[in-house]
Amino acid sequence: MKKLNRSVNLTSAIAISIGGMLGSGIFVLPGIAAAKTGSSIWIAYLLAAICILPAALSKSELATSMPSSGGTYVYIERTFGPVFGTIAGIGLWLSLLLKSSFALVGFGAYLTVLVSIDEGFTKYAALFFLLVILFLNIFGIKKVGKVQIVIVTISLISLAALLIFGLPNVKQEYLQPVFSNGNIGLASTVAFVYISYAGVTKIAAIAGEIKQPNVNLPRAMILSLVIMSLIYVSVAFTLVGNIPMDILGTDIKPIYTISEILGGTYVGYVAAVVGVITLVSMANSGVLAASRFPFAMAIDKLLPEFMSKIHSKYLTPVVTIVMTCMVMALVILFLDVEKIAKLASAFMVMMFISVNACVIVLRETATQWYNPPYKSPFYPYVQLFGIISGIILLILLGFVPLLAILFISVLGFLIYLKYGKKTARVGVLRKYGRRAALFLLYKRKHRKKLTQSNEVTIKKEFLDGKFLDDAGVVVPLLGDETSPEMLVEIGAALNTKEKLQVANIIEVPNQTFLEAVVDENPKVNALARRFSRLAQNNEINIDFESVVTHNVSDTIYELSDQTHCDWLVFGWNGRARTGILINNPIGWLMTHINSNFALFKDNGVRYIGKVLIALRPGRNDEKFIEVADRISEFYGASFSFLRVVHEDISDEELEEIENASTKLIEKSSAESKLVVVKSNNSIDTISKMSASYDLLILGTPQKESWTSMLFGTGKDKFTEKSACSVLRLTIKAN
User: Which CATH number fits the domain 454-601, given the four candidates 2.160.20.10, 3.20.20.80, 3.40.50.620, 3.40.50.1260?
Assistant: First the structure.
């Protein structure tokens, strides 16, 4: 199968990256960090941004060369092999779940401002919301992502307001001493706040979904890093300049504290609300991202197979989501805030050291496939700085984080010996080449097996992962079609070019890797066999591919753009709130795609011998007649051109309509005739006449929008009452 989902533009990429950083790093961490270095905390945030810059540049380069979902785990596994991939996957999983746990602990602190609960019960409140997050991720709620964008916007506006009122009120006496624990204190604080910027490279994990990744990925990372470093530095400076250090040093809800100081109790309450929703949102996105790593590792045979299972109904990796939340619950219950932050920073520093090393290894080995459109500047000095500074930061974090890293490395190695060794994969060129070859080999073997077990030979072009670039018609299949063959036949009848592209599209929630559902699928194999038979029997030049995506409408847009098609043909049941019409904003597609549209309601008619075309006068009649003639000729059918006129129409008007209509059909190749009916009820008239025909062709209503017709505010009554199959056409004006 092939996946198509490049729907994220530069602005969205920056928003995702900022959303990954905005949270506990500013709402919880500054107070604890200030206790380590004094008012120089803002310098620590600035230095941390500089230290993480090499990882952002390196990850940008890696992502443009390997723009597939998975991010850091994929880069390390492909570069160093499955042993390091296993260790990296576990490290990334732990860093993200620790960061999310830290956010929920901070959430509990902000919640005490709004709800009268004992501070000893805040952990249990955090556990309750963790349970809510668990179910949100299992159910694959897509709208959560849109809500998160709103939350990030509210947080940024709130922080901007804090700076506007806080910076003028900075008290010089609060800024002394600048370095309460000397240079070592500052350096260890840099390591401590490092986790605050971890989200800057989060966008690379969905590189396969970004438009023009070679341009937008590095821009998104660098711009978001600049924006967030300015926010962190300025907010940190504002905090130490407005809150006495003896209060700030033990405060894990500093944004509430400074808001109350500057604006009073009610402003403090507003800040607490913003803190609560921001931290819960961050924890939710963290669970979504963290659960992907063990899930991907299970798919790569580096963890037990049961971890790769997805929910049969919701298509989410339920095992890894539950496992992630269970570990988070243990972290919240048994680790204090500072230890959580230290461990999260340590694992993230380790991963970013590895990312910088990946670039050096891939460039120096001159791997053939490694040809990134974007290359990190000042190579290898930037990468060497990132590696050396990362090692120093790890040492400064202390003995416990280093011990944890050693433990994870040993655990990862043991897990590899138990599970990953069976994969027989290696790093860099051999490993990557082998994986690509196995994919193609699987297709060939499977196609051979199908040929032997069925009398129909599967076309060799089917399921080769390549779409046509010159198809006249594209037929997207969404799984709810009454007869896919009949829909493809209609597409062939509309086609004026030689080739026709059929795409079986499977949409999965954002929690699920696209790669998880590209394995053997009996339904896809059955469709390949059926379309091969259709192509052979009807002499239709068909190409069939299967696509996995997170967004159907964006995929269809991309598919239309790639194939340069004239027509998009969809299955349709004619009622509101169903199938494609609820998952695919047709109105959006119609305004963004230049292709013509055809919606086919299959009422079970299998042999088309008589076609009825019913149009309102002035509705681009000539082009509709051409289409009706083409369809009739394809099926060897005749067609009738129906005109329903008002009962009190004058003879002169009637004669004018008859003459104009006759002129339209006189050049038709298929047998045709004009039928004029006087009636004030066009719906009933067409419904009764449709009983004598096999296919009714209609145009799009002029007054009724696609949104109202297809999404529940109205019904297509012509289609609903038709006794035969219906083809609804929207022809674009050229």
Answer: 3.40.50.620
Residues 301 and 37: their CA atoms lie apart, in Å, by: 45
Residue 726: what are its φ and ψ, rounded to 5°? -125, 135
- 3-state secondary structure (DSSP) of residue 637: coil
pLDDT in tens, 485-494: 999 999 999 9
Task: For residues 536 and 541, give the distance between their C-alpha atoms in angstroms, rounded to a whole number.
Answer: 9
From 17, 259, 41, select the one nearest 148 (Cα to Cα). Answer: 17
Q: How far apart are CA 486 and CA 607, in angstroms?
A: 10
Instruction: Name the token pair of 442.
Output: 């699987």
| DSSP reduced 3-state for 474 | strand
Q: pLDDT per residue over 344-363, tens digit each?
A: 888 888 888 988 988 888 77
- Reported as a single tens digit per residue, the pLDDT across 562-611 is 778 889 998 876 654 433 433 344 555 666 677 888 889 888 888 899 99
Kindly state the percentage of the chain with pLDDT values over 70.
Answer: 79
The structure's pTM equals 0.62
Fold that domain 603-734 belongs to in CATH = Rossmann fold (3.40.50)
Coil/strand/helix, residue 495: coil
Full DSSP string of 184-230: HHHHHHHHHHGGGGGGGGGGGGGGGGBSSHHHHHHHHHHHHHHHHHH
- 64-87: b or e for each residue (b if 16 or more CB lie within 10 Å)? bbbbbbbbbbbbbbbbbbbbbbbb
Domain 9-392 has CATH 2.60.40.10: no
| Cβ proximity of 79 and 362 under 8 Å | yes
